[in-house]
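> call design_seq(struct)
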């Protein structure tokens, strides 16, 4: 059984590769992270940043932050990237999604505008209500998987990352 004492601290840069980089969920998450990094807002709703856990008996009133107990990456360690089937920068996508207001986006406009997706893997047969024009080409699904693998390796190398995670924020269709 692993205890918290045996868990290594999160160190180094963490790549966050997102499938569906230009979607409303992704761009809101990224814009919010950039805003919190710059102390423009609080991380309201973030379990990792504001969530607490009770330790001991109720009357002891010990409620440390989750991030004090679990070795999580600091928000400054995150580097975003990923794939989408639309070739537009994340600032444009966030504006189109209309989840955040312009006053929320303008302070992080530069960072969002610099973030563009890699071409995604898309097969119209499986997705009836979307079309994609920013897609990988390959003869087989294995070929497409190899292209994704190369994207991951290149992203890690080019951004000097220590580790990576992948988030699915693509269409649920």
């Amino acid at each position: 059984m692993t205890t918290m004492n045996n868990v290594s601290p999160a160190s180094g840069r963490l790549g966050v590769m997102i499938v569906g980089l230009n979607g409303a969920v992704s761009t809101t998450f990224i814009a919010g992270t950039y805003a919190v990094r710059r102390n423009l807002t609080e991380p309201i709703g973030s379990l990792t940043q504001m969530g607490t856990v009770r330790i001991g008996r109720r009357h002891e009133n010990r409620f440390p932050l989750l991030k004090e107990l679990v070795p999580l990456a600091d928000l400054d360690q995150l580097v975003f990237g990923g794939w989408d089937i639309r070739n537009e920068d994340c600032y444009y996508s966030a504006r189109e999604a209309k989840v955040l207001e312009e006053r929320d986006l303008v302070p992080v406009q530069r960072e969002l505008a610099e973030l563009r997706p890699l071409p995604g893997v898309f097969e119209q047969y499986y997705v009836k209500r979307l079309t994609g024009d920013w897609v990988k080409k390959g003869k087989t699904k294995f070929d497409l998987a190899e292209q994704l693998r190369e994207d991951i390796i290149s992203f890690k190398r080019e951004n000097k990352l220590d580790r990576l995670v992948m988030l699915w924020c693509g269409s649920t269709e």
